[in-house]
Specification:
The chain is α/β, with parallel strands linked by helices and about 270 residues long. It contains 10 helices and 8 strands. It has one domain: TIM Barrel (Alpha-Beta Barrel), CATH 3.20.20.140. Strands 4-5-6-7-8 form a 5-stranded parallel beta sheet. It has a 3-stranded parallel beta sheet with strand order 1-2-3, sandwiched between helices. Helix 3 packs parallel to helix 4, helix 6 packs parallel to helix 7 and helix 9 crosses helix 10. The longest helix has 18 residues. The protein is globular, with a radius of gyration of 17 Å.
Length: about 270
């Protein structure tokens, strides 16, 4: 099935919380066998939109093709992941991202810093991240940020980007709180994933830290499936488990939490609201 329904209809009929999956990798080969079915399962589970991440120029092209099949339901981004920063070329890759933005990309990224795996030298990661932040400022697009074990450098670059008017998202956030505070002070969003449903999760204070207008939810599919599906290939249809857990931690009804994260995603990505 192609195309999408208007926001605000299906979940009410099914009595499920509305949500927008702010970060999923539908272009990943893990979905090659059943991508269309996975998208329809998300729609049936209450998703009002899916943001398909293009974490490389090649993935962005695939993500754009998926979005074209599901107008007003799947949206795409374009970026260069820190794992690929060693081969980042400022002229070539920035022009590629600029072209994707002209063809409907709603954000730049996934980009950022990853000092856990260090697949690329850290100075090259910072250069690739800085160039994408500069492009976000120029194009007035939000930026989707991956950060792992790089809190200090990420905070410094977020602070500088925020001063230049860039709005972004710390995706799949699990701490530290100080980094969240820096991002929130810059007007950024915090996105929580299925990690918050894991038994080892022990920081509900972090879930209550962002203001209600700065919260997003995501699947990060095919990674990080929430309980009760942990260990399986994740998919956007399971984000309602994250919405439920976030609602519990913040003392809201599941329906209200869904409305909050939906409105925030519409605002952040500048999606049409009807």
């Amino acid at each position: 099935m192609e195309g999408g329904r208007l926001y605000g209809t299906l979940p009410r009929l099914l009595r499920m919380p509305a949500y927008i999956d702010s970060h999923c990798h539908l272009a990943d080969p893990a979905f090659d066998a059943d991508r269309d079915a996975a998208i329809e399962r998300a729609r049936s589970a209450g998703a009002l939109a899916l943001v398909c991440i293009g974490e490389s120029p090649e993935a962005a092209v695939r993500a754009r093709a998926i979005a074209a099949r599901y107008p007003r339901f799947v949206w795409h981004t374009a970026g260069v992941h820190p794992h690929d920063a060693a081969t980042f070329d400022s002229r070539r890759d920035i022009e590629s991202l600029r072209a994707e933005a002209a063809q409907g990309a709603v954000a730049l990224g996934e980009c950022g810093l990853d000092y856990h795996y260090d697949h690329a030298p850290r100075d090259q990661q910072r250069r690739a991240f800085a160039d994408q932040l500069a492009l976000a400022a120029e194009l007035q697009l939000p930026v989707v940020v991956h950060t792992r074990e790089a809190a200090d450098d990420t905070a410094a670059m977020v602070r500088e980007a925020g001063a230049a008017g860039v709005v972004g998202i710390l995706h799949c956030f699990a701490g530290p709180p100080a980094l969240a505070e820096t991002a929130l002070a810059a007007g950024w969003y915090i996105s929580f994933s299925g990690i918050i449903t894991f038994k080892k999760w022990a920081d509900d204070a972090l879930l209550r830290l962002p203001g209600a207008d700065r919260l997003l939810v995501e699947s990060d599919a095919p990674y990080l499936a929430p309980v009760p599906f942990r260990g399986k290939r994740n998919e956007p249809s399971w984000v309602h488990h994250t919405v439920t857990r976030l609602a519990e931690a913040r003392g809201l009804s599941v329906e209200r939490m869904g409305d909050v994260v939906t409105a925030n995603a519409v605002r952040c990505f500048k999606l049409p609201s009807s």
